TrEMBL record:
The keyword Phosphoprotein does not apply. Keywords: Flavoprotein, FMN, Oxidoreductase, Peroxisome. It comes from the Eukaryota. Glyoxylate binds at Y26, Y131, R166, H253, R256. GO terms for biological process: defense response to bacterium; hydrogen peroxide biosynthetic process. GO terms for cellular component: peroxisome. Its cofactor is FMN. Its EC number is 1.1.3.15. This is (S)-2-hydroxy-acid oxidase. It comes from Carpinus fangiana.
Amino acid sequence: MEGEPVNVSEFQELARQALPKMYYDYYTGGAEDQYTLKENVEAFHRIMLRPRVLVDVSRIDLSTTVLGYRVSAPIMIAPTAMHKLAHPEGEVATARAAAACNTIMVLSFMSTCTVEEVASSCNAIRFFQLYVYKRRDVCAQLVQRAERNGYRGIVLTVDTPRLGRREADIKNKMVAPQLKNFEGLLSTEVEDDEGSNLEAFAKETFDDALSWRDLGWLRSITSLPILIKGVLTHEDAIRAVEVGVDGIIVSNHGARQLDYTPATISVLEEIVHAVGGKVPVLFDGGVRRGTDIFKALALGAQAVLVSSSLHICSSNIRIFSWNCFSSANGGFPLAILKGWVVFDHHALMQLPWPFCCHFIFLEPTDNWFS
Ligand SMILES: Cc1cc2nc3c(=O)[nH]c(=O)nc-3n(C[C@H](O)[C@H](O)[C@H](O)COP(=O)(O)O)c2cc1C
Ligand SMILES: CC(C)CC(=O)C(=O)O
């Protein structure tokens, strides 16, 4: 690569050079044929914009609210497991990035820093993502620790009754580190010489009997708002609203779970329509550019989440995570800013789908690295 990286895929290439193959493959891989992995990105490419010109864009406000919390732009940090595989500071560095960007970080249930460490490291607004284990007592303790430590929402991930079949992890015999959150509660060690240790762990630990009934259980152990992550159909979106969730995240888990699910951007409008504004609809999957975010908002998402787990240490001071956030250096959504689409959010929302943008203005940011 010549010069400094200017977009997410160039950061990804740096990550490939910097990380052990096992971890790089884990971070970037999808399930089985990885068809949905490609499709998540390519479906965005098929959506064209319809620019309107001669609109005053000299003052732009990208801020929005998510569950009542104001964020500087409609971009949040998705929950991704085990940040210390890529950087020694792990989720604490990511949380600092969230604080610097004035956005919300969703901490993964499978984090390498503890709920408490992340909470005390910065004042970012934090949500806590939950996997439901067979050991419900462990889940309840973690949810209560999150609540005590000022997390503002629970994100229940519902697309992982078993871990997706990730062939690179099987070949690499992917091994997960011990997760500090579970120290004294549960061992994350499993014997599995056959393939992915992570998959074996999930098979042993995750509750594959999880069902709609369990939303009642979750309500009974927390007073925090509950968002459900992993919805891909209008039927499930309607059901989620009926059982009383506070938000829906349209997601196919970055194509890491069931291959041949549709690209998330292709089902967003159906879900937004079914939900009819009763609860906010958030979105993730394949977001690599500012224009992708713009398209998701145009289709009715309140905000998008970007995966942030692949940190790159570049020179001696900067830590970048390739899916958009820089933590040490001012903390702006770097790759996104490089091709950011500036828009009048409110005007856009009043216009009919699909591409009636009030205006579009591409604003590359120079000298971001100096
Ligand atoms: C390395 C990695 C780890 C992830 N870990 C989790 C996790 O612990 N919990 C979860 O709900 N989703 C997890 N996800 C899924 C993300 O939250 C998100 O849905 C997905 O990455 C969005 O797609 P994108 O990677 O194309 O942005 C993970 C994704 C990646 C790439
Ligand atoms: C440890 C895994 C369950 C984390 C995850 O959700 C993922 O790798 O996609």
